[in-house]
Amino acid sequence: MKLSKVLWQTFKENPSDAEIPSHQLTMRAGLIHKAGSGLYNYMPFFLRSLRKVEKIVREELDNIGCQEIQMTVITPGELWQESGRWEKMGDLMLRFKDKNKKDLCISPTNEEAVVDIFRSSVKSYKDLPLALYQINTKFRDEIRPRFGLLRGREFLMKDAYSFHKDKKSLDDFYDNIYKAYQNIISRIGLKYIVVEADGGAMASSDAKTHEFQVLAKNGEDTIIHCEKSGYAANIEKAKSKRSQKVERQTSELKEEVETPGKSTIDSVCAFLNIAESTSLKCLLYKYISNNKDQFLMVVTLGDDTVNEIKLGTIIKGDHLRMANDQEIETLGLIKGYIGPQGLSEEIKILFDSEISIKNAYVVGANKRDFHILNLVPERDCKKYFQADIRLALSSDVSIEGFPIEITKGIEVGHIFQLGDKYTKSLKVNVLGEDGKNFIPTMGCYGIGVTRMIAAAIEQSHDEKGIIWPVSIAPFQIYLVSIIKDEKYLKDAEDLYDKLISGGLEVLFDDRPKLGPGHKFKDAELLGIPLRVTFGERDFIENGTIEISVRRTGEQRKVKLDSVLSECQALYSSLK
Ligand code: ATP
Ligand code: MG
Fold first, then answer.
1. Among 1.20.1440.60, 3.30.460.10, 3.30.930.10, 3.30.450.20, what is the CATH number of 16-190+414-457?
2. Is the CB of residue 148 below 6 angstroms from any atom belonging to ligand 1?
3. Which residues hold their Cβ within 5 A of ligand 2, which is an ion?
4. What DSSP character marks residue 548?
5. Residue 414 CA, closest ligand 1 atom number
6. Which of 128, 244, 255, 470 suits 18 as a labelling partner, its CA being 20 to 30 A distant?
7. Residue 317 — pLDDT band, cuts 50, 70, 90?
8. Domain limits, the chain
9. Is 256-387 CATH 3.90.960.10?
10. C-alpha separations of 437 from 125, 157, 428 in Å
11. For 153-190, how does the pLDDT look when each residue is reduced to its tens digit (9 = 90+)?
12. Taking the complete model, does pTM exceed 0.85, yes or no?
């Protein structure tokens, strides 16, 4: 492709809304063009990379027997009403009506649509297992679209869905798609980690779910990883233990102590001169279950934090949030002085697993300016239950007691055993081997295709620009001609043709009016793996052409005749 004929523009300055390198570089290198908040047009070079990612994805999915389909981007509201998600999806889903006043939405995901295809076309166990996938546009009206393609509103996703007669078949397929995802990311050439993910409140306890996280310091996800045990999980669900906490036992009865104005954990603990881990942090939450408001007092060690995602999976209800001041007051509690003792029946109590219920703690006295000393949960609290609801910390150890580290990742893929959630709500029935109907079980599997490219750039760039992984670079070679003398132009053209005939993908910077500095800067910004420089002086004086490697900066000068073979060899060595 000749640059003189391509629609391409680069920019010196970072756009003001671009906070991280992948966003800055995709914009500055003219790969994408902003259409609106979270909306991007894909420009020619970006599309070339996108097609390469898609090809890798298709090959790996076809290889495990998935069939490609393409569903509509707009889906009827009826289907979502049937599954019960029309309301549940909240603001994330863009809804509208057609001229006949029928509800429609732009697909944020396609479980309903694929189940609708399945239920009208599959009648017998003989057609199972079945796995369908598509690479298609999604729209999610994200609360905070940011970081360019990493969290767009419109984006390209590969979504796959599988249907099975039993858990065993689902497990087998799950293993295959897990490996296919590993192959995809390895072939693209990214460093990643597979982590246990949060299955959400609806998932059954044996439902597997994993996220594929590309390691990058600007990733939005936090990952706990224990090298020694191999445990890796998204912090949303990570299980770990505190490496240290002060514990205190006592046989003394609980007693009230005056703590004037000390309504925070640190101020109370400083005032009483005790370790924060011998105090309890009590927070009041509200959620809805069976159409009724429920109140839950959530208690952690004073210096721990509640993980609301873990909490959300434990409660049997939804619309979980912290109770507001008025609700706290109505229940007879006093903000800053809340304790789990002497509560009314309607408040359930949940202690975090790190709390030793036989130990003694300081808690709020449910009375302004007072705290309680020596509260022993087992002895002093009514009806409570215990579960892991704390946020893991980098100072924690794994459950086995090994060190852990916390890193940041970009979720490029997510695989998930759904069970019969959608096949049940959408009333799917398949004839079983025994002549009876059964409800098939399902899995769903996503890859953020456009996010994958942004993740690649986030992981692979320097201060000058992008350094494409060779597998998805828009081109293999950036051929720069810095020739002024017309009589050598033909030689440069010939070299371009020769490289192309040799099977290489070449972008030829033949822009006549630009100086070498500008061309080199653009080449570095765009980050094509190899640059071949046809410079007048080198060529006339020594008959040589310069080849340089974007990633390492390595340079070689070779005779015109051997440019092709050198490029082929160098390129293969980079793969
Ligand atoms: P996230 O937690 O990042 O919001 P998600 O868990 O909601 O993502 P899934 O529903 O699992 O996402 O979607 C499958 C894949 O689609 C994700 O793993 C991610 O790679 C990609 N994806 C999701 N939301 C976006 C987005 N707003 N922009 C780009 N890619 C996205
Ligand atoms: Mg996800």
1. 3.30.930.10
2. no
3. 414
4. E
5. 18
6. 470
7. confident
8. 16-190+414-457, 256-387, 475-574
9. yes
10. 9, 33, 9
11. 999 999 999 999 999 999 999 999 999 999 999 999 99
12. yes
